[in-house]
Amino acid sequence: MTRLRRGAPGWPARLDELGDVPAALHLRPPADAARLEALVAPPVVAIVGTRRASAGGMAFARRLGHDLARVEACIVSGLALGIDAAAHEGALDGDGRTVAVLGCGIDRDYPRANAALASRIAAAGAVVSEYEAGVPPAPWRFPARNRIVAALADAVVVVEAAARSGALITAAAALELGRDVLAVPGTPWHGGHAGQNGLLRDGAAPVTSVEDVLVALGLDPARVRTDDPAVGADATRLLAAVRRQPGTPEALAHRVGLGAAGIAAALVELELAGAVTRERDGTVVSA
Questions:
Q1: Is the peptide bond before 43 cis (omega within 30 degrees of 0)?
Q2: pLDDT digits (tens, 9 = 90+) for 20-43
Q3: How far apart are CA 2 and CA 77, in angstroms?
Q4: CA dihedral 242, 247, 253, 257 (to 10 degrees)
Q5: Closest by Cα among 284, 244, 282 to 266
Q6: What's the CA gap between 62 and 68, in Å, rounded?
Q7: Which residues, 6 or more positions from 11, have their beta carbon under 8 angstroms from its beta carbon?
Q8: CA 24/CA 214 separation, integer angstroms
């Protein structure tokens, strides 16, 4: 496990805006400080909501996570059942960036039902916690975890939440930090939607598509790419990394978690598709 102390290279500076700054972040292997720093480069969107989500809510969270990942946004959430898990899955399916913040020790898979998802996130993104290995889950640790989710993000989207929900704690923390809070409109007479509808009543921006989130972030909705080449998952992930920040093949391999053979194959695929080129010093840039 990597222990990233406050102020160390790679420490997310946004966490210093919190009133209760964690002393350290623990990162599940293979993530390290350099990978986390690349993952939480803007734009970062937190997608949160109830564990008892409807099928429609989960489908929307998954689609939103996927679409935001495809336009190079990082998806942050809490690896809980329901909306959180769906958002992470969408980001992974979109070959994008995602970070899961745990409310327990970094070595714990909680809930156990999301153990396989946690492994996927650890391999392609990052699983982090302010709690060291061995710390058990406890009810008070999850609301505390939510402040980190809010601090890492540029905006928080509440997909589905009851009137009393951990997602609303995340939204409140985001507002205190000056982050944008958005919500997905829900059925007015459905008690499980009272949380996000209350946020909308209080002035949160509505979200019906990825374009709504991009507008809230001050980004051009035309950022949604429809002309990307039809390439494999590794090449798609590499292309997103190059668009965020050009780099040498070695640096890019570290950032996206590919070995030498994998990065070489993905680069050839992208070069043949005309999506990237190499400069004279070997730096890979998007075409």
A1: yes
A2: 999 999 999 999 999 999 999 999
A3: 20
A4: -60
A5: 284
A6: 10
A7: 4, 5, 25, 33
A8: 31
* Full 3-state SS string of 12-76: CHHHHHCCCCCCEEEECCCCCHHHHHHHCCCCEEEEEECCCCCHHHHHHHHHHHHHHHHCCCEEE
Residue that is written with structure tokens 């909705």 in the block: 221
Domains with residue ranges and CATH for the chain: 2-223 (3.40.50.450), 233-286 (1.10.10.10)
| Residue 123 structure tokens | 């391999």
The whole-model pTM stands at 0.80
DSSP secondary structure letters along 229-272: ----HHHHHHHHHHHH--B-HHHHHHHHT--HHHHHHHHHHHHH
User: What number of residues does the chain have?
Assistant: 287
Q: Is the peptide bond before 111 cis (omega within 30 degrees of 0)?
A: yes
- The pairs formed by 19-25 with CB atoms below 8 angstroms and a separation of 24 or more are 20/144, 20/147, 22/130, 22/148, 23/130, 24/130, 25/128, 25/129, 25/130
Tell me: the pLDDT tens digits for 115-161?
Answer: 999 999 999 999 999 999 999 999 899 999 999 999 999 999 999 99
Whole-number average pLDDT of the chain: 92
Looking at residue 93, its amino acid is D
Q: 26 is written with which tokens? A: 């623990």
The count of C-alpha atoms lying within 13 angstroms of the C-alpha of 216, restricted to the half-sphere facing its C-beta, is 25
Would you say the C-alpha torsion 262, 265, 270, 271 has a positive or negative sign?
A: positive
The two structure tokens encoding residue 161: 């939440």
Q: Are 161 and 46 in contact (CB under 8 A)?
A: no
